[in-house]
Specification:
With about 180 residues, the protein is of the alpha+beta class. Helices cover about 25% and strands about 30% of the residues. Strand 4 and strand 5 form a beta hairpin. The longest helix has 23 residues.
Length: about 180
């Protein structure tokens, strides 16, 4: 779905984005807690809460929605295991962590990251945890501002596999696949 910035809906969305941007800037300065999401409203505990927190952190990696900006120096890749193989939305094939790091470095001096994520919401569909392996299925809604300054909103579905070295260790992505929800 696309909105022309001249439309009333786009103006409402842009106002919301401006407020969110101010809130985001204030959150970093004041330690403000990011807004509640479907995941945080689920009141999860233990491993389930830890897994969904990593997934939510990765989706907020651009700094949107009051989250920490992990794009600079590809810090979002720290959320991946060293042997990760992930399939980014729209990519022709899965890539390794090191391949993605090289691609990010090549894009650093260009305008390749044209779209700016301004909002997202995750809708958990299922989570299975077996020891140190977790599989999460969910759908999502994502809004971006593109290079033409138009807001685009799309829906997707995703499956993530996360692993940890031992109980109590941080969860990291081993793989994911995300695509449009049809």
């Amino acid at each position: 779905m696309q909105f022309n910035l001249g439309s009333r809906m786009a103006l409402i969305l842009m106002a919301a984005v401006a407020v969110a941007g101010v809130a985001s800037a204030q959150s970093e300065a004041s330690g403000f807690t990011p807004p509640q999401t479907n995941i945080t409203r689920m009141h999860l505990t233990g491993d389930a809460a830890a897994v969904w927190a990593v997934i939510d952190r990765e989706w907020g990696r651009s700094g949107c929605c009051g989250r920490q900006d992990l794009m600079q120096n590809s810090r979002y890749l720290d959320l991946l295991s060293d042997d990760a193989l992930v399939w980014f939305w729209g990519a022709p094939a899965p890539v390794s962590k090191e391949s993605q790091r090289m691609e990010d470095a090549a894009r650093a001096d260009s305008k390749a990251w044209q779209d700016k994520r301004i909002a997202y919401e995750l809708y958990p569909q299922g989570l299975v945890i077996h020891g140190n392996v977790a599989v999460a299925h969910y759908t999502c809604s994502v809004s971006v501002v593109d290079k033409n300054n138009e807001i685009k909103t799309s829906s997707c579905r995703s499956t993530d596999v996360l692993v940890r070295e031992r109980a109590g260790a941080p969860w990291k992505f081993l793989t994911w696949v995300t695509g449009p929800l049809k």
